[in-house]
Design brief:
alpha+beta; 6 helices; binds flavin mononucleotide
């Protein structure tokens, strides 16, 4: 029987470290993220696998004015939901600190299988985006909070909700603090069948 080829290279180990090392970042420095890097990360996102090459994604890069409107909206949403002005202000202030904003949407489809596969493709694109940034030292957070389903958010972005839905809002920036995380051992989540 032939021996399996060796796969153990430094490059592979380093690649694995990038995959494992990426963390969801909540606190960011205000250091600006280069525009070109974000552009490259979006390009990396578009190389995600997508069944039938539907390229079902769209990327919205939010500028200052749009971010301001989103911050106002989240303040309103928290006020409506919790009726607590302090909580609303606290959340708005935390959001105003996020240096980079990207919204990733997926086109809508009436075909259930296609919709599922398109969403899956958009999720892999999102991960590509985040990992590309991470390799460049830029952290991110994928959020799917209430705002991403709020009609007022669609108005702010100029999105037609009958045509696309939000996969995630991604904040990005240089990390101020990188938290730790754990995962179950591989054997706990793997079954090897004969
Ligand atoms: C589809 C999706 C939606 C998420 N939405 C939120 C969210 O709304 N709020 C939040 O705090 N984290 C959100 N996260 C981030 C997860 O909480 C995070 O990935 C998890 O805690 C594991 O941490 P890690 O990314 O550092 O491994 C989301 C992640 C995914 C994949």
């Amino acid at each position: 029987m032939k021996k399996a080829p060796s796969y153990e290279t430094q490059e592979l180990r380093e690649f694995g470290e990038v995959l494992q090392g990426r963390r969801t970042i909540n606190l960011y420095l205000q250091t600006p993220v280069p525009d070109g890097l974000v552009h490259e990360a979006i390009e990396a996102a578009t190389w995600a696998p997508n069944h039938h090459v539907t390229e079902p994604w769209h990327f919205y890069r939010l500028g200052k004015e749009t971010v301001g409107r989103c911050v106002d909206l989240v303040r309103t949403i928290v006020m409506e939901k919790k009726g607590d002005a302090d909580k609303a202000e606290h959340k708005a202030a935390a959001w105003a600190e996020k240096p980079g904003w990207l919204v990733i949407t997926c086109r809508r489809s009436d075909d259930e299988l296609l919709q599922q596969e398109d969403y899956a493709a958009c999720c892999t694109a999102t991960q590509n985006f985040m990992l590309y940034l991470w390799k460049a030292g830029v952290g991110s957070k994928w959020t799917s909070g209430d705002i991403t389903r709020d009609p007022r958010f669609f108005d702010i972005l100029g999105i037609d909700p009958s045509q696309e839905f939000v996969v995630g809002m991604i904040w990005y920036g240089y990390p101020k603090l990188t938290p730790t995380q754990t995962r179950k051992p591989v054997d706990d989540v793997t079954s090897v069948l004969p």
